Amino acid sequence: MKLLRTIALGALVAAALTPAAATASASVTPGDGLALTPPMGFNNWNSTNCRAEFNEDMVKGIADIFVAKGLKDAGYQYVNVDDCWALPTRNAAGDLVPDPVRFPNGIKAVADYVHSKDLKFGIYTSAGTKTCNSAGFPGGLGHEQQDANLFASFGVDYLKYDNCNNEGVDAIQRYTTMRDALRNTGRPIVFSLCEWGENKPWNWASSIGHLWRTTGDISDGYSSMLDIAKQNWALAQYAGPGHWNDPDMLEVGNGGMTEVEYQSHFSLWSIMAAPLLIGTDLRKASPSTLAMLSNRDVIAVDQDPLGVQATPLRTGGLDVFVKPLKNGDKAVLLFNEGDATARISTSAAEIGMPGAPAYKIRDLWTHTDRNTAGTIAATVPPHGSAMFRVSMDRQWVKYPPAVDAAATAPTVYAGAFPLVTGGSTVTTTATNSGRLPALAVNSKVVGPTGWSVKAASSPSTLVLTTNKSFSTKWTITPPAGTKPGHYSLTVTTTYAPNSTSSYTLEVVVPDPAPKAPAYLSDLPWLRTSNGWGPVERDHSNGENQGGDGNTMTINGVTYAKGLGAHAPGVIEYYVAGNCTTVTAEVGVDDEQGTNGSANFEVWADGAKVADSGVLTNAMPAKPLQANVTGATLVRLITADGGDGNSNDHGDWANAHITCG
Q1: Which pLDDT does position 553 carry in this prediction?
Q2: d(C-alpha 345, C-alpha 319), whole Å
Q3: Which of 56, 77, 302, 651 can bridge 270 by disulfide, Cβ–Cβ 3.0-4.6 Å?
Q4: What angle do CA 121, 125, 127 make, to 5 degrees?
């Protein structure tokens, strides 16, 4: 008995002397009880970078907004600061020093303020000698325990640990060293490995951190978001409570995507059980941005305690994802990657629901409940999505049948904008997926004020039975003098009992087509997309803000006129059959050294009419000429050369079109 007491006493003493054992939750993964659902919060980097506006007042203001705008109640917890919070050099004791201009009261005071709102505070450093900012703030390599102790003294709850200037030290070693340092502080800290997926952290990081980046950095554009989503959704098997795949922060609200694309972005991250870290400046966020970020139906899918990342049932452009939920429901996302409106469907059987006469289906964006005989479907606009929660419910009969509204318009090629130039045709369709018939079905189209909308066939039917559709043709005419731009046609389908479904079709009134020869950089384009940054007129692509490009230079030759793109990119013009020839001198701009490659294509409507082949920085500009006679739309496409799009600054120098 005395021996047993001695052993027990020794164990207690050893535990007391071990900082990591201070509490069961003070260890840093695995099984420490932290991040059992994907972390939700805010990070300033995507909206402020290192600009002066990133400071103490801003961070405190974000905490206030979390409370005042209901984000805290929706589940957001972490207010995280990114790079540039510290001075460029450590102090005499080797500690990181908060920038006294940005944080005059120090980091602990900010953390205390965040904690006073019953929120949590996060900080940033890098697993290297310096952080990722070009100014070169000190990183954590070789200072892991010292920095971890400092962070714990600040009251840090979350550490983002980046990957720059790592001196080639093994990734597992670098991140394990910081994990152990965090454990030794005795403070529970969520550990985020920002390793960019370079060393496949999904294979080893679940014993080191709570989340790990699976990709490079996201940018505020659809192509970047889609590329990152695709990389991340292939890794579903590695995610779960306490260990999450991280496809980077949210761009919702930053302005580089449409509302439709942002909704897809938020839906994809949620069904992938990704961390939801807001990347927009909430001080400037619109009501629609706040509403999107606060959608509790969608957030509940992300935060479901079962912790399963959605498995893609089908991909290839019209994608179907399913995520099992703890109560037996299934979350379903229908996602249209492409540029043409499409109907996407799955079934209760395909997503793994037990057999039943009917099911309850909740639209997570319209917050409406319906019954379905088994079909889960929606007509989805380009880059858009529809998200549902499917449940077994014996009282399904109390919900109206699921009738979805849709609208389509003719396009010049698959994926082109629907153009409205007067007397255009739109077709609306209502489809009943419900077990019960829809009665007294009536469709209506409403355009902007002053637009003429006339039904060319009957807009109503008395009965619409299960899996049947009903269509109406409409003639749409905008008033004379309508300004060029994007406009919305709202389709509303009403049916008994007392139900409504709606759909928004975006149409475009184009600028007048050119009638004389011109440089393309002097003409209004119909649309553009770019791998990084906006397309530039008469400058190269600067990758960030508009106007940040340089003089176009290809193999030492400079050009005053042209278009600066970045692969993958598209620049499209409405020419209405008035033009015959496009010419340009194309090549990869010198500003990116010798690492870039791209190929340049000209398309007339749906046909490719010129292709440069793959060009590199080492090659001179190549003359390109294309016959576009009779085309309604002309596209300049910059592709990535087949090796990824890093440094692919594609110049369309002296790009010119002959018209009239």
Answers
A1: 95
A2: 9
A3: 302
A4: 135
Nearest C-alpha neighbor of 561 from the set 587, 522, 590, 600: 522
Q: What angle do CA 288, 289, 293 make, to 5 degrees?
A: 115
Give the burial class of 96: count Cβ atoms within 10 A of its Cβ; 0-12 exposed, 13-18 middle, 19 or more buried: buried
Residue 130, phi then psi, degrees to nearest 5: -140, 160
Given the candidates 2.60.40.10, 2.60.40.1180, 3.90.660.10, 2.60.120.10, the CATH classification of the domain at 310-399 is 2.60.40.1180
Three-state DSSP class for 359? strand
**Which fold would CATH assign to domain 37-305?**
TIM Barrel (3.20.20)
Give the domain 518-659 fold.
Jelly Rolls (2.60.120)
Cα(451)–Cα(477) distance, integer angstroms:
6
Catalytic annotation present for 57: no
Q: Which of 82, 147, 157, 162 is catalytic?
A: 162
How large is the angle between the packed helices 259-271 and 222-233, nearest 10 degrees?
10
How confident is the model over 223-276, as pLDDT tens digits?
899 999 999 999 999 999 999 999 999 999 999 899 999 999 999 999 999 999
Phi, psi of 177 (to 5 degrees): -60, -40
Q: Which helix (H) or strand (E) holds 305?
A: none
DSSP one-letter code for 24 = G
d(CA 359, CA 346) in angstroms, rounded, equals 13
- Let me know if the fold of 37-305 is the same as that of 402-509: no
Tokens matching residue 111: 């953390």
Point out the catalytic residue in the list 64, 95, 180, 217: 217
pLDDT tens, residue by residue, 457-496: 999 999 999 999 999 999 999 999 999 999 999 999 999 9
For 137, 295, 302, 551, the CA distances from 554, given in Å and listed in that order, are: 34, 48, 47, 10
Q: What is the pTM of this model?
A: 0.87
| Contact of 468 with 492, CB cutoff 8 Å | no
Distance of CA 604 to the CA centre of its chain: 30
Fold annotation for 402-509: Immunoglobulin-like (2.60.40)
Q: Is the pLDDT of residue 22 over 50?
A: no
> Is 522 marked active-site?
no
φ, ψ of residue 495 to 5 degrees: the values are -160, 160
